[in-house]
């Protein structure tokens, strides 16, 4: 088994070419550690029935840097493979199955993402599109005439042990298919202060004010400032008119007094003109 003291490091995942978890006896395979830091010294290791934690080149495979090439596989090469650094850091592991039979199931090596489509193929040593029955956890799913089955929008319920069967050729080994949860959002990173406490989340800036919102805001401000002056002006005009109305005479009285004054003046003018004429 993998060293329990090893620290798993996703920085150097193990990739397999060809990308499938089952292979025929006599096939070749290449396993590579995709490392970012070459100085870490990543190598391929495995656990099989013949040995545990053995390194590429130690009786199996041919190392080439962080890659291990196996030119001809045997059934005893079936096992768990992973990448490990000099310091003991390890990548996630994968299961490879080498079949001595005539049928294999081509399935993803790595866990598939929730919501993705996954295609399984039932293959013989001589590639053909023969009808195949697909089985999950011991129960028949369905039979496909071309030997290919697609699982649409997989969920955690699709996890399980899969195998296939071709009439006249036999049954493939079983392979476990894992489904990883797809996260729609990512949590913000946690910041620790010098004293070890967790820093509070940053305060987000308020959203910018749009042009229409700014116009409405200015209009409201003008109304708030203008309304008191407008109301006070109306009150002053109303008070002034009330006071003026209390002092002045009615219009009809003014007109009568004016007419009376004009009549008196007219009589005086007539008297003067008559006196002058008699003279």
Structure explained in plain terms:
A hairpin with a 2-residue loop joins strand 15 (132-136) and strand 16. This protein has helices at 211-247, 251-278; strands at residues 7-8, 14-17, 22-24, 29-33, 43-48, 51-55, 62-64, 67-70, 79-84, 89-90, 94-99, 103-106, 112-113, 118-124, 132-136, 139-144, 148-151, 160-166, 170-171, 175-177, 179-180. The strands form six sheets. It has a five-stranded mixed β-sheet with strand order 3-11-9-5-6, with no helix packed on it. Strands 15, 16, 18, 19 and 20 form a five-stranded antiparallel β-sheet that branches. A four-stranded antiparallel β-sheet has the order 2-4-8-7, with no helix packed on it. With 279 residues, it is α+β, with helices and mostly antiparallel strands. 23% of the residues lie in helices and 32% in strands.
The secondary-structure class comes to alpha+beta
Globular, elongated, flat, extended or rod-shaped: what is the shape? elongated
Strand tally = 21
Strand content: 25-35%
Q: Overall pLDDT, averaged?
A: 78
State the share of residues found in helices, binned by percent. 10-25%
Number of helices: 2
The multimeric state of the shown protein is single chain
Distance between the termini: 158 Å
Q: How would you spell out the order of helices and strands?
A: EEEEEEEEEEEEEEEEEEEEEHH
Keywords: Disulfide bond, Membrane, Signal, Transmembrane, Transmembrane helix
Domain Ig-like: 10-180
Protein name: Ig-like domain-containing protein
Transmembrane segments: 215-237
